[in-house]
From TrEMBL:
GO cellular component: cytosol
Pfam families on file: Porphobil_deam (PF01379), Porphobil_deamC (PF03900)
HAMAP family according to UniProt: Porphobil_deam
Compartmental location: Cytoplasm, Cytosol
Domain Porphobilinogen deaminase C-terminal as annotated: residue spans: 244-301
Protein name (database record): Porphobilinogen deaminase
Main location: cytoplasm
KW Acetylation (keyword) present: yes
EC number: 2.5.1.61
NCBIfam families: hemC
Amino acid sequence: MEEGPYKYIRDGAGKVCRVIRIGTRKSQLARIQTDSVADKLKELYPDIHLEIVGMSTTGDKILDTALSKIGEKSLFTKELENALERNEVDLVVHSLKDLPTTLPPGFTIGAVLKRESPHDAVVLHPKNVGKTLDTLPENSVIGTSSLRRAAQLKKRFPHLEFKDIRGNLNTRLKKLDEKEDFAAIILAAAGLRRMGWENRISQILEPEDCMYAVGQGALAVEVRARDADILEMVSILHDPDTVLRCIAERAFLKHLEGGCSVPVAVHTEVKDSQLYLTGAVYSLDGSESLKDTMQTSITADNKSIEEVDERVQRVGVTANKMSGEVQDRAERLGVDLANLLLSKGAKEILTVARQLNDAR
């Protein structure tokens, strides 16, 4: 039964229930991530009926071009958002790092789930088992489609060469294993873990070697901002520490005006009621960089949670069950750190990086 924009079905007992449709990319990892969110919702709301709708996105179709060259900020999200806009789905599950820091009008991130490891991982060609980036032979070729990873690792491991590798996780691992083109590739640890391929991780890159992408390791649920009932339903999935860390990271990136086409990296930590944010910008070859750390308290002064305006988004995130004051501080932290780096010359580094990348 279709009723207005919503879909309903009769259950076994003849009761009419609304079907909640979840949009996802078709890749195996996207499906695993979406299924994990669906399972959590089923557990919390046993009476709802969920339907998963798989789609292909531009980023899934253009596989012969480096991500940073395509220049489209919403490569993996636009088609999903179009389906959300047309009421074909009610919510969409994304990797948070794929979502631009400014969402199209009418959409919001209604849940940010507990973050898996945000770090990057080294996956070695089978013939290099037992080695690390340090011990790989001179001029070994490392595959990565990320300017952020390449910029940091070129500086840290000058004896290695870095080349673009595209495709979903399955494709990239196949390219690594079946050819001799790459000595190793760099992937997000979170994706490998979710796929059950933890045994392929040879080395986890700590922040001193390679800081991670904004939002890396966290899953986000995007909804229509006006759907109060859906927003309410998914808001229970929010993980407060992850929300604050990701608001700070996204605010940092947004204020720098960074995107896929410039090397920007972060590292966040919540410790003793303080949120620490380290952020950095790099030239494409990693020779120039600016990096700093700032912190803010995340204890609400006002003990009672104030009535949070559901229309208020912070860098695309709506978290109306959390203190708005603390969320504001997390956002401010990102903006302040971006301003500090801008005052030291970050804009020049990023502008040159963008121009060089466009010219490649």
